[in-house]
């Protein structure tokens, strides 16, 4: 959803400017919906400072928007379930983004208007830098936990070549506590079952006859037991490998099996706990970052309007929500309405005006910034 934040110099009164703009664009032609955008009386400083700030604020604008989008993306990633609408979690000061931006009120507590414009720029830059840094740490920690859990889960359900065998075997499958004999677990591709039954007793000496049983199958493999004397284990493994029978290293130990099961439960519980904590943090800091971003837009609007229209400060800021099919007509209407402000507009949009930094946006006779609040769009 795209908005245009524009400003125009006050006529006799800013109210008169508002009525003229609103009549031409909204009431008469129904091209858009307009909202007054309240910018407080900020400290102007010198012209040199404003020119420098124009560049600084342009960079800050891009940075804060990037952090907002990273936070939104992290919220979507954390939710995982695609049925959960991530947009529902993107709020600013408890409001959906469209409501916040159309009812914008400057937050004096966070960004005191008695501070210089440079100080306000630094406050926001420091705040967002901290959020960005914390975001990396939070996401890295949570992703590490998710990765460990996914690795364990794969071992519970993956291929017999990799999965945890403790969940598949029982005590009675093994010869236990014998001084001379042991039971091995062998993974055999299904296409080689016949060969296994024909060969396993002959792969080496000292294999207990008819000791093999099939205890589990997945799509591609079967898990077999076979019992033999300890002294031939290495030789058996070698001959098994030659026949594409894979001996899994496994020692039956009920304590280890229970511990593995507990580890999975522990990680699942830890992930549930961390999920709530991380999601809450992301939502809170997305709100903070988005609020900061709109304040940066307001600061840019103030600086560019003073540079464009001069002193004393007398301009009206308006947030326009253009309707999709009327954007070109709306732009033409605004250009006609404010053509008197700059005759160069008749030669078409200009990309570079000395001392006026509008980023990559085109130049119009009025100050204009686009704000796209679709956090998952371009």
From TrEMBL:
Listed SUPFAM superfamilies: Vacuolar ATP synthase subunit C (SSF118203)
The record's InterPro entries line, in alphabetical order, gives: ATPase_V1-cplx_csu (IPR004907), Vac_ATP_synth_c_sf (IPR036132)
- Keyword entries, A-Z: Hydrogen ion transport, Ion transport, Transport
Q: Which CDD domains match?
A: V-ATPase_C
GO (cellular component) term, any one: lysosomal membrane
Q: Name one GO molecular function term.
A: proton-transporting ATPase activity, rotational mechanism
Q: Name one Pfam family in it.
A: V-ATPase_C
Q: What does this protein do?
A: Subunit of the V1 complex of vacuolar(H+)-ATPase (V-ATPase), a multisubunit enzyme composed of a peripheral complex (V1) that hydrolyzes ATP and a membrane integral complex (V0) that translocates protons. V-ATPase is responsible for acidifying and maintaining the pH of intracellular compartments and in some cell types, is targeted to the plasma membrane, where it is responsible for acidifying the extracellular environment. Subunit C is necessary for the assembly of the catalytic sector of the enzyme and is likely to have a specific function in its catalytic activity.
How does the annotation summarize its subunit structure?
V-ATPase is a heteromultimeric enzyme made up of two complexes: the ATP-hydrolytic V1 complex and the proton translocation V0 complex. The V1 complex consists of three catalytic AB heterodimers that form a heterohexamer, three peripheral stalks each consisting of EG heterodimers, one central rotor including subunits D and F, and the regulatory subunits C and H. The proton translocation complex V0 consists of the proton transport subunit a, a ring of proteolipid subunits c9c'', rotary subunit d, subunits e and f, and two accessory subunits.
Family indicated by similarity: Belongs to the V-ATPase C subunit family.
Q: What is this protein called?
A: V-type proton ATPase subunit C
- Protein species of origin: Leptotrombidium deliense
């Amino acid at each position: 959803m795209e908005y245009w934040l524009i400003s125009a110099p006050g006529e006799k009164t800013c109210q008169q400017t508002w009525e003229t703009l609103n009549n031409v664009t909204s009431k008469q032609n129904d091209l858009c919906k307009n909202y007054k955008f309240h910018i407080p009386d900020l400290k102007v400083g010198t012209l040199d400072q404003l020119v420098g700030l124009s560049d600084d604020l342009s960079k800050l604008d891009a940075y804060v928007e990037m952090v907002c989008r990273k936070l939104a993306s992290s919220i979507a990633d954390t939710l995982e379930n695609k049925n959960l609408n991530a947009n529902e979690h993107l709020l600013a000061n408890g409001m959906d983004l469209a409501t916040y931006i159309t009812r914008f009120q400057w937050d004096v507590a966070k960004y005191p208007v008695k501070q210089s414009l440079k100080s306000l720029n630094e406050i926001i830059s420091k705040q967002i830098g901290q959020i960005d840094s914390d975001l990396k740490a939070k996401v890295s920690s949570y992703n590490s936990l998710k990765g460990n859990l996914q690795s364990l889960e794969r071992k519970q359900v993956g291929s017999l070549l990799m999965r945890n065998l403790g969940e598949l075997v029982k005590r009675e499958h093994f010869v236990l506590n014998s001084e001379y004999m042991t039971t091995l677990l062998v993974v055999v591709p299904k296409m080689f079952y016949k060969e296994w039954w024909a060969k396993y007793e002959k792969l080496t000496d000292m294999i207990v006859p008819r000791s093999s049983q099939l205890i589990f199958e997945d799509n591609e493999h079967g898990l077999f037991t076979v019992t033999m004397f300890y002294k031939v284990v290495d030789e058996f493994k070698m001959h098994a490998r030659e026949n594409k029978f894979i001996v899994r290293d496994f020692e039956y130990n009920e304590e280890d099996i229970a511990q593995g099961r507990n580890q999975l439960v522990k990680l699942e519980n830890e992930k549930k706990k961390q999920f709530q904590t991380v999601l809450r943090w992301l939502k809170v800091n997305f709100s903070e970052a988005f609020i900061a971003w709109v304040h940066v837009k307001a600061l840019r609007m103030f600086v560019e309007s003073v540079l464009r229209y001069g002193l004393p400060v007398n301009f009206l800021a308006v947030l326009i929500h253009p309707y999709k099919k009327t954007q070109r007509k709306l732009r033409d209407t605004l250009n006609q309405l404010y053509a008197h402000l700059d005759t160069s507009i008749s030669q078409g949009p200009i990309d570079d005006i000395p001392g006026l930094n509008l980023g990559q946006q085109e130049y119009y006779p009025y100050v204009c910034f686009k704000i796209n609040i679709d956090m998952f769009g371009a």
